[in-house]
Structure formats: C-alpha cells, structure tokens
Amino acid sequence: QAQLVESGGGLVQTGGSLRLSCVRSGGTSSTYEMGWFRQAPGKEREFVAGIDRTNVITHYTNSVEGRFTISKDNAENTGYLQMNRLTPEDTAVYYCTADATGSWTASSSWNDWGQGTQVTVSS
Length: 123
Description:
Layout: E1 3-7, E2 10-13, E3 18-25, E4 34-39, E5 46-51, E6 58-60, E7 68-73, E8 78-83, E9 92-100, E10 110-113, E11 117-122
Parallel strand pairs: 2-11
Antiparallel strand pairs: 1-3, 3-8, 4-5, 4-9, 5-6, 7-8, 9-10, 9-11
C-alpha cells in the first residue's frame, strides 16, 4: 500500500504552534482519507484528527478541537496538521495514517502508517 512520511515535529513552548506534514507515495488512488494519531510514553495510541477523501469532512478528538486543524492537498499527496496553542499534554509522537476501513477513531481501522514525528511542548 501507500508509504507515509511525517515531518515538522520539534520542541516548542506552551502556547506555541507547529505544522506537521505527511507525504504519501505509492498509493493506488488519487484521493484518500488521512488521519493523525499520537502516542505519549506509557499511553495507548490516541486518535487526534481525520479528514475524508475529498477534504469535506473532518473530525477531531475533544482535547484538540479548536486548536488543531487537519487539511490535505490531494494533488500534492500531502496532508497537514496545524497545531496551535500547544500545551505539555500535547507532547507525544504523532503518526500520520491513511486509508481507513472502519471507524476513524480506532487505530486498527487504518491501513498505512508513517514512522512518527516527535512533538515536545515545554512548560
């Protein structure tokens, strides 16, 4: 299936912003759904945001609603996660994922995964 590569993670202060990117390659379709999950040390992987094939429908977990924005450029095979007003609770490895076959909020629904990018928010 498709290969995904995330980038854009780093260290920011509380209240700062980061923009994560996810480049997709090798997929068989020109449109695709994309999601972002995150995993903090000792915790399970958590759904963050998802966007549908044609970039009409989005869904966010409550803790990031109003602060994060997911978007995607299908022509460029690139998705983005704009993260604003970051807090230390946002610290995690963020994973890009694509091609869901079930509920977006379940990691098992997604077929292709990136390697992850570290986001660290200092207090």
